Amino acid sequence: MKKILLFFMAAAALISCQRQSHVVDDAQLFQRPDAIDNTITALEHDHDVVAVVATIPSLGGKDIAATAQEMFNEWGIGDKDTNNGVLILIVPKTPAQDGQVRIQTGLGTEQWLTDDQCREIIDNVMLPRLKSNDYDGAVVEAIRAIADKCGKSADKQAA
């Protein structure tokens, strides 16, 4: 019964999680969402990458990869022709669950932002900040790392 209740709570969280900006903070983790939004706006302006950051309180027993893919598709992140979207999904650690992070990319970004590079950004950039509850800093630095990867890709294409 408890699993069923958790599933319905997670489903309700996903439904209520309506994207209206670059930052969807349903878990209420961010103290400076405007700083995150400004960093994402710069990424979009400088590199033509559309990013969204979302937090949800729980996965309700679902897999984070499947949840991120579902949100990414439902929200239509990125241009549908270039598939230039990126979603950063954060589920916070609580006494009842481990925290989880996922960077979901569109097909158009996978050439310069691979799964291994996403894992590297999560492990080396985000997790140290998340462990000290610096959610804002974790996301801002992750977006900067994504911009850096994008910039290196542009440099390679120009060469």
CATH architecture: Roll
- How far the N terminus sits from the C terminus, by CA atoms, comes to 59 Å
| Helix and strand composition category | alpha/beta
Beta strand count: 4
Q: What share of residues is helical?
A: 40-55%
List keywords for this structure.
159 residues; alpha/beta; Diaminopimelate Epimerase, Chain A, domain 1; 5 helices; 14% strand; globular
Structure, briefly:
By secondary structure, this protein is α/β, with parallel strands linked by helices. It is built from 5 helices and 4 strands, in the order H-E-H-E-H-E-E-H-H.
Mind sketching the topology for me?
Layout lengths: L1 H15 L6 E3 L7 H15 L2 E6 L8 H12 L9 E7 L8 E6 L9 H17 L3 H24 L1
Task: Explain the overall architecture.
- It is built from five helices and four strands.
- The protein is globular and about 40 Å long.
- It starts with a helix and ends with a helix.
- With 159 residues, it is of the alpha/beta class.
- Helix content is 52%, strand content 14%.
- The protein has a four-stranded mixed β-sheet, with helices on both faces.
- It has one domain: Diaminopimelate Epimerase, Chain A, domain 1 (Roll).
- The N terminus and C terminus are likely disordered.
